[in-house]
Design goal:
Shape: globular
Number of helices: 19
Keywords: Membrane, Transmembrane, Transmembrane helix
Helix content: over 70%
Oligomer: single chain
Strand content: under 5%
Organism: Dioscorea zingiberensis
Number of strands: 0
Radius of gyration: 23 Å
Protein name: Protein DETOXIFICATION
Structural class: mainly alpha
Main location: membrane
InterPro entries: MATE_euk, MATE_fam
Number of domains: 1
């Protein structure tokens, strides 16, 4: 039996020809699925999970780095645990969101460059990202250095603020390790070469736990030892990744002219800032909700129940973390290679995959809603409050399952600026007022603040999903091709001048 034109296109793409692309450009995703059938869906899924699987594990291991410090600190004293947790909230979450946002410009540019066959362009983009992220880390250093007065200004307990400030200063080197880690990860991620990244991060986690045990318990260095272990393990991961791309991927620092560098920096910086705003609008939304919840009556129960639900939500979101990354890679690769409908079909498969992941999570929450709170709290009042918010946790999981579609389309296509404005409108103009109305005026307490935030999330998902649905993907592929063609013309001009 002869294979369908769509299946032939996938075969050609994997073999490197890609000559027969018209078949994939003439059908909407549902018809593509009907024509290509299960084999086409499986092949696209394999491409997605080739990236998503290792990146998901990498996310779990990276999150465990921070969690392990809090576990060790919790065995020192309650005050030191609070200090470490507070330090991470101020000195790690805030800069990490900014660096992830700035670095996500590489998802767009490196992914499209790799799809267009301009592999040497990836090195240029990675170098520019390293420069921008290192400068950004330097500019954000005062947040670490002045953590104590910042925390005191926010009303934090003096003893906790002082300890958190000292710990923050000591983990400042880790900020610059992150600035190196993100560009290298994006460089490899755009090429779907992420398996060894997971091994390196896992090795860093083992090293981190070993150093924590030695510094905290054997040498009795307390939080100073925890900070030293965090810095050493973070830099070990960053250096190992850099050595990996230099030795095994023949990475070389690319030379380019001053005029082309300035043009590239300006274009790259605009996309990086747009990406940072998109991610910051999203990441800070959760922090604002926690602050508002802390103003409610009986804040211990309100914040405690919300924190438990958010903790579960974060772990579930880790399942979508790899899908988000794979979505960026697949969409940007296909747009860069000019395969508009292939990018659209990839989003279709990613959407189905996300919903398939969300379904068992929803069932688990529904079945265990009266039992899982016991794992996190001994207070019966707090347990009842958490169980009473299970339906909101389920709604949050459903909205999270839509996120890979939005991230893949916006980052893969380079729409970060548009989505940043939409995030600001939905989260801060609509969501925050609704949190006050539902939490305070309607007296729904923590359910009200979370419900208000979810309303903003829902509107954001609806607007961006409508944009994705209406997008002319052929035009997006043309834009990506023009961007890559401009690089070729600049390179030819520079080569002729040498």
């Amino acid at each position: 039996m002869e294979s369908s034109p769509l299946l032939k296109h996938i075969d050609d793409e994997e073999e490197g020809n890609g000559d027969d692309q018209e078949a994939l450009k003439e059908h909407p995703p549902l018809k593509e699925f009907k024509e290509g059938g299960w084999p086409l869906f499986v092949r696209e899924s394999k491409k997605i999970w080739r990236v998503a699987g290792p990146i998901t594990l990498n996310g779990f291991f990276s999150y465990a780095l921070n969690s392990s410090i809090q576990i060790f600190a919790g065995h020192l004293s309650a005050v030191e645990l609070s200090a470490v947790s507070t330090a991470f909230l101020v000195t790690t979450n805030f800069p990490t969101v900014v660096l992830i946002g700035l670095g996500s410009a590489l998802d767009t540019l490196c992914g499209q460059a790799f799809g267009a066959g301009q592999v040497e362009r990836l090195a240029v983009y990675m170098q520019l990202s390293l420069i921008i992220l290192f400068l950004s880390a330097l500019l954000m250093s005062p947040v670490y250095i002045f953590a104590t007065p910042i925390l005191r200004l926010l009303g934090q307990d003096k003893e906790i603020a002082v300890l958190a400030g000292k710990f923050s200063v000591r983990i400042l080197p880790q900020l610059f390790a992150m600035a190196m880690t993100f560009p290298v990860q994006k460089y490899l991620q755009a090429q779907s070469k992420v398996s060894l990244l997971t091994c390196i991060t896992f090795g860093g986690l083992l090293l981190h736990v070993g150093l924590l045990g030695m510094f905290v318990y054997v040498f009795d260095w307390g939080l100073n030892g925890a900070a030293a272990a965090y810095n050493l393990s973070s830099w070990a991961v960053s250096i190992a990744q850099l050595v990996y791309i230099i030795v095994w991927h023949n990475f070389a620092w690319t030379k380019f002219s001053l005029s082309s560098t300035l043009n590239e920096v300006w274009s790259f910086l605009k996309l990086s800032l747009a990406s940072a705003m998109m991610f910051c609008m999203d990441g800070w939304n959760m922090m604002v909700m926690m602050v508002i919840t802390g103003l409610l009556n009986n804040p211990a129960i309100a914040v405690g129940s919300l924190s438990i639900c958010m903790n579960i939500n974060i772990w579930i979101n880790m399942l979508f973390f790899g899908i988000n990354a794979a979505s960026c890679v697949r969409v940007s690769n296909e747009l860069g290679s000019g395969n508009a409908k292939a990018a659209k079909y990839s989003i279709f498969v990613i959407g189905l995959t996300s919903l398939a992941i969300a379904f068992p999570c929803l069932v688990t929450i529904l079945v265990t809603r009266d039992y899982f709170p016991v794992l996190f709290a001994s207070s019966e009042e707090l347990q009842r409050a958490v169980a009473d918010m299970a339906h909101l946790l389920m709604a949050s999981v459903v909205l999270s399952s839509i996120q890979p579609i939005i991230i893949g389309a916006s980052v893969g296509g380079g729409w970060q600026g548009i989505v940043a404005y939409i995030n600001f409108l939905c989260y801060y103009i609509l969501g925050i007022p609704l949190q006050f109305i539902m939490g305070f005026l309607l007296h729904w307490n923590a359910k009200g603040t979370w419900g208000g935030m979810l309303c903003g999330l829902l509107l954001q998902k609806l607007i961006v999903s409508a944009i994705v649905w209406k997008t002319n993907w052929k035009d997006e592929a043309i834009k990506a091709s023009k961007r890559m063609q401009l690089w070729v013309e600049q390179k030819d001009t520079i080569d002729s001048q040498i």
